[in-house]
Amino acid sequence: MKDELKTHIINYLSLDDVNKDDIKNDQSLFGDGLGLDSIDALELIVMMEREYNIKIADPSKGKEILFSIDTISTYITENS
Amino acid sequence: MEIFVTGTGVVSAIGLNTNENLTGLLAEKTGIRVTNYRGEPSRFLGTVSSTNQELKQELELDFDTSRTALLGLKAAKEAWGDTTSDANLRTGVISGNSVGGMDFTEQFIMDLIAQSSDASIEALFSHPCGFSSQLIAKELDDVSFCNTISTACSSGANSILQAVQLMKAGKLDRVIAGGTDALSMFTIKGFSSLMIFDAEQCRPFDANRSGLNLGEGAGYLLLETAESASRSGNKILAKISGCGIANDSYHQTSLSPDGKGAVMSMNAALENAGLNPGDIDYVNTHGTSTENNDEVELTALRTVFNDNVPSFASTKSFTGHTLGASGAIEAVYAILAIQNDQAFPSLNITDHLDDSYKAITTKEDHKGGRPIKHVLSNSFGFGGNQTTLIISEA
Amino acid sequence: MSKGYINSAFSLKEDCIFWDGEIESMLAPTKLPAQLDAMYKKLVKDYPKYYRMDGMAKLVFILGDLLCERTGICEKYAGEDIAIALFNSSGSYPSDLIHSEAIKEGFAGASPSNFVYTLPNVGVGELCIKRKITGETIFLIEDNFSEDRMSELAELYIGQKKCKAIIIGWVEPTQSEGNHLLLISEEESGLALPNTAENIKNLC
Q1: What is the ipTM for the molecules in this complex?
Q2: C138–B contact, CB cutoff 8 A
Q3: Cα distance between residue B160 and residue B166, in whole Å
């Protein structure tokens, strides 16, 4: 799942210069990690709904859930 | 050279003309209601209480067209009033909007899909952003210059700014300047994807605010040089004493935490007007009610006014966020504040964002009831556009 | 009132890159978006947010960034002394189209990142973020390219001391016949051509 997640993230966020191997599972996706910003966070919320049928209604909760590949995959597993 | 305002026109959720808007502002009652827009889930919106057919009839048009154009033409005509044609005066129309005739295009597509006989390809003529400006130019007299500005939520304010610049440069003598925007699915779904709506009625500068309510409307000023006003005989209502504009250069949609762009535009406007911060009696903020805007704008106000912030409020709590029209509608409200010595409040605040710097929540809150001679009005757009107008009694 | 001087001109026409009126290089004869991506990879690089921009923002960003790089304008003047005024006829058409298609799916279809770019001035904002330009920025809609309008506006800005330099041009992503950016400043440097409609027309 984590592999698939990375593929989705790269596609949805148009991270054309990033490879799956560049994204570590526990790395912070935002700020200094992968450098994602608030617009990317919203885009990932769309991804979660489209690809995993999971709605994140509160963007501020989204920050915790979308922190890293690990936290996202845990959330998907718990909410599927 | 001084630039005078000799006409105002406005249509919004709180009124179909300047007087109705003034009544609405004085009554301190919002025009934002739970509304269902074209089958979308109901949400709080600031809609204008006139149908397209009613507007079309009132404006004596013999064709259907986009609501953006109809609202714009109504407000522009009000601002123009009975001003007469004068071949010796160079007249311009400068207008801003964000979404053009999208509402009409959407209707056309729905009609087409339904195979309705109402579907007409001519509907697409009103689609471009420039259409509403050109319609206004065509319907008024002697217009020799027409331009459209598209800088998101600062479009209306930037149209006024451009008009002032062109007049001061001696290129134009009088200008209908402002902005218009109607609601559309394009806009509503787009802002929905940004998760930027408040599910409840918006509350700018409230500690628990959680987003904006969209609105629609139009606002225009008739701007004239002294010579033009003397020739037209129009009564002078106010003057644009200063304009400032800067780019925040921080993020596509969020404001920089220290509000540097907003500080720059406000300081530039004050310098342009030859005024000190202490001369400002009232601030009509951009005040969208988003977490980011209101916090940053208050930070910027504190910086510019050295913590001695004048009465401030957001009239978007009355009208909703009218996007490309907002800066122009709020310029009209600034003039009404001056004419009536009234500082219009922010509605719906329960807990203030900052108890040491409270937005005014009723007109009685206005500091010491001091006369309103100078109003500062902010408009901030996506893409880092920060614009400030200072409107003063003439 | 000072009219200003044209310091440099950058044009992208079909598959040719023109600097200061002369052909400098050729691009592969592909569509404009692919050409811009190729220019980014070769000439700009190292700006990850480039890829999420829409066609309009990419056009403004690439042309603007290369013009700034070539002329060193951001080193010569403070950010607040540089203005940007761009014209086109279709606004933000590439992302408008994508957004219109996406919203047919309902909320889950709309891309927030794409929606942000359905405002033509956001591309200008991108250039400002990268190059720390904080002066007046404006986006105007006109039916056609007008050298008169451009020259007048630049003259207004320079003459009224709204800025010391202005990046001005026509950026229309729905066509590849001609996208142009010019640097006009108070300094008689670079090309040092007087800011006139005729000179702008000849360079474009």
Answers
A1: 0.87
A2: yes
A3: 10
